[in-house]
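Field reference: sequence -> structure
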Amino acid sequence: MKEFINLFQMKILINKFIIFFFILFFITQCGLYKRSDVRDNPVNVEERVQRNIEQGRGIRFGVGKQDGGTFDFASSNELWRATVDTLDFVPLINASYSGGIIITDWFNGGVDGDKNNLRDLKITVKFLSNEIRSDAIDIIIHERVCDEIKANCTSSLIQNEISNDIKLAILKKAAFFEKNKINEIEKINKKRRPKKNY
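Structure field:
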């Protein structure tokens, strides 16, 4: 009986090895494993990791050398950077990258016409997409009109050319940032490629 159990366990072990080598053979034949040329890959590990991340072929789990307090997700989004840069003239009360919204504080919008009422504005930017296009952001402007002593105030949503002007300024700046980013990547890639002598 003991010999039968040992023989049975040996057959299971042999079957596992056969299945393992069979799977290994198919992985190498199907092209999942691709052999790479040493001349195409940088020797330095950090350069290789950085190149893979730039090309979208790798991820980093935070193991190894880290710089504390750096968050690349928001700074790599040109639309977000352009919006923050465009609205730098007014304090922000909410800037949530994960929520896709920026809200400014109330700021002085001048005097309202003949009545000498004080006018304040608040800008809200909603991000609908990461792509740089006209429907990627929605800009909402609220107006608060108060009398001279700020006793009576009324708030309302306004639709005018200011929101279109702000949207246009953000999109132009985002396109400029994206163009600079592409130029920097091209410069880095040109430096890394060895020159071919024919």
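Note: Confidence is low (pLDDT under 50) at residues 58-73.
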